[in-house]
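Figure S7 source data.
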Amino acid sequence: MPEPSHRFLRACLRLPVDRPPIWIMRQAGRYLPEYMEVRRQAGDFLSLCKNPALATRVTLQPLERFGLDAAILFSDILVIPEAMGMNLSFGTGEGPILDPPVQSPLDLQGLRQPDPEKDLGYVMATVETIREQLADRVPLIGFSGSPWTLATYMVEGGSSKTFSRVKGMLHDRPELLRGLLDRLVEAVTAYLNAQIRHGVQAVQIFDTWGGVLGHDEFLEFSLESMRRIVQGLDRNGPDGNRVPVILFAKGCGHHLEAMAGSGCDVVGLDWTTRIGQARERVAGRVALQGNMDPAVLYASPERIRAEAERILTDYGPHPGHVFNLGHGIAPDCEPHKVAALVEAVQGFSWGGGQA
Ligand code: CP3
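Tokens for the predicted coproporphyrinogen III complex:
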């Protein structure tokens, strides 16, 4: 298999790089005035996701501003439940609504398995348009939500603070939840494989809500379904390169070894873990992505630089570090703070190169 030349793909595969690559979760979004402008043109967020030309434009916006080392497909994790037949809407300021919530075996039977080429054809068109316009300057990352995280939105009918319905289901009707997770494993695997066929060069699985589960529940109800997806991905990209898989589970630093054993190439860390210790724990089995607290971007540029350098130094001069935040960037972040972060990471040097 050929060795990739892009530093982001090289770092994912733990190959030596000149400096660690950086991209930022939710790098295209409401903190950028130019994003707000295109969203206005599209009408609303979901129409923006479904318009390949405009979705491509917002994907490229943060790259034009900051010179990041990777692009991420502009879309949302909730397009999967929508393609399975649920009604999806984003009320202003209220977060997403999925209607009607999945609460019975009958609701589960009513869901269909999406055909990614047909039901999510607009995503595939966006992937192709982005790749054309990127012209190989940086790699394109595709993504999906994890089955557990998608199930929380589908069972709760939207966002939740307590996860009472989905956790009630986990304990009282585990076979119903397992049935839903099985459907999602199949849908997500097919969806990510389609993204790979259409040109994404890496994929990330977002398990935003893995950390709300108890220890054994995470392993059984979240990690196991992600492991099955990782095993089902066709990681030989159409260009012959290996397509790295990144697993990001928020609040799951204590499951690092288990995640590293899932078959993924990279584990994404939130900011509650020390990345230097995490590197020792995974012992070269996977690369690590992260892990600056997004709230550091509310501090001064000097403080941001110091924190970025602390993380880079803590990881040390070893291959396999992809710099990122520990979660998505906040809508009220000032863009010049992101510029300060990117400059700090791009200006960082080990002098002698990587060990
Ligand atoms: O990273 C990127 O730049 C790519 C785009 C992306 C979006 N959502 C765009 C978006 C990605 C990777 C996601 C993933 C996503 N969506 C996750 C997992 C990642 C995470 O942050 O943990 C989750 C849980 C969702 C579900 C979702 N989408 C919620 C809960 C919301 C509402 C949040 C809010 O603050 O209003 C969204 C909307 C959403 N997805 C926006 C964007 C840019 C904001 C929509 C807008 O423009 O109004």
